[in-house]
Design brief:
- The protein is an all-beta fold.
- The chain has 1 helix and 23 strands.
- The strands form 5 sheets. A 6-stranded antiparallel β-sheet has the order 2-1-11-10-7-8, with no helix packed on it. The protein has a 6-stranded antiparallel β-sheet with strand order 15-14-23-22-19-20, with no helix packed on it.
- A hairpin with a 2-residue loop joins β22 and β23.
- The protein is elongated, with a radius of gyration of 20 Å.
- The two termini are about 35 Å apart.
Amino acid sequence: MAKLIMSLDNAVIREVPLDKERFTIGRKAHNDIQIDNLAVSGEHALIVTILNDSFLEDLGSTNGTLVNGNPVKKHILQTNDVIEIGKYKLKFVSEAPTGAASVADFEKTMVLRAPLGKMSPGPGGGGFGDTQVSATATQTTTQQSRPQATVTAAPKPPEKLAAVQILTGPSAGKELELTKNLTTLGKPGVQVAVITRRPHGYFITHVEGANFPVINGKALDAQAHQLNDHDVIELAGVKMEFFFKNG
């Protein structure tokens, strides 16, 4: 499990395990990690953890968020990254492989353009206009050790493979197989969601943007949502269908 080691003036204050999908950081008391300092915004930053990957997002804070001394808006955290918020430092530590694999594994990129005049407003705001949307599959592989000796065992039934197909815009008809553990869809800075492949199904989670993804006409909340066959996803003004392949 990943954790944050919080320090001030090189003195460790506490350790915070990232034991749920979303952690908010800010000055106000409702945040998961409250930092009572005037240099920290009320809702300053957000960390979303999906499987072995943790994503940091600055929530439009007044003084910004730094990672290893560099200002960031959105960042895939790697072990030993140091997040700076005000005078406080939060060192990210994870024993599992993290964002380094994700950054290196941008294997597929689909460029989508929503049709003019057909961008329906998302919940809580207007449409995105004639926006180019990149749907990038962030592919994260899990390495498994192989036995040295031959072991006779009953064959394991194959897991269902799923895909998404673009329904609107010039890229309509394009298909993206969800073969890896983590697939990121959307447009950074506008709306981003992650589809995770788990042993018991596929789940979609909101990562970035004021508007939440819409599934079958209903806006999601901050929690992971399990996808069903032929669900229609609306993300950054583009509609796509989730479906299972070969039954």
